């Protein structure tokens, strides 16, 4: 009974965050897609945000679909593959592209590499996104046909039955599994972490310099930089938690428990793209205004529908 209640609660929690995240990322994708249709072009930052929003819609849609059709094994397998690919796109590569773009554009480091990238980063975004999609697909292809959970757990069970002799195949299985997990997530994680830390350090130094020269600590520009540091640090913490949860979720069930570890990970994983999309909307005036208009339109439509249904009943 406790296990059933736990699964129900965790599923409800996951659904809640997934629906909110789909709405937030949907707003981002729709707003910039309309801009692209009108102007036939997008800025570099808008291009990254559009790809990030679309990949996160797919990712969070798979969480909802996974719960709705949990009895259909074939579709569950398809959804899992889409979830793995979009997860690494939205969690790792696209998020890393956005972090690198902000780092290069905002920081004032004088190293030759930074100066070279600052001049060319806007023209490199399209290629960076294409390479990100290619790397995400290539690094997730092995998981399309390899059931590591079943394979490693069976190998572990056989090894425990014959503990007198070392199993070379089992050791190789674990080696390839750890290698796959590392290659898929570690490189974009290091890129995101490094660029975010450099950006926070740069903003912190600039804020201290402004506080030293300003007559008051309540200077609006200083306050804006402090808020930016808080936002970046929050996003960094969310990303690290989401990355760890997504990595742990890949481990075989024989190495973890079957209820609490997958359950907690299923909450933390959709939490990052949901909260991050909300933060992006709140700190971007254009996205914030457009999202408010969308919410207002949805509210008006809901009120009109309720009035019509009431009038029809009468």
Automatic annotation (TrEMBL):
Pfam families registered for this protein in UniProt: TAS2R (PF05296)
Transmembrane feature ranges: 12-37, 57-78, 84-104, 125-145, 174-204, 224-245, 260-283
Entry-linked InterPro entries: TAS2R (IPR007960)
CDD domains according to UniProt: 7tm_TAS2R
Gene3D superfamilies linked to this entry: Rhodopsin 7-helix transmembrane proteins (1.20.1070.10)
Domain of life: Eukaryota
UniProt topology in membrane: Multi-pass membrane protein
UniProt key word Zinc-finger: no
One term of GO molecular function: bitter taste receptor activity
Keywords: G-protein coupled receptor, Membrane, Receptor, Sensory transduction, Taste, Transducer, Transmembrane, Transmembrane helix
GO cellular component terms listed in the entry, alphabetical order: membrane
Subcellular location: Membrane
PANTHER family reported for this sequence: TASTE RECEPTOR TYPE 2, TASTE RECEPTOR TYPE 2 MEMBER 40
Membership in a protein family: Belongs to the G-protein coupled receptor T2R family.
Protein name per Swiss-Prot or TrEMBL: Taste receptor type 2
Lineage: Eukaryota, Metazoa, Chordata, Craniata, Vertebrata
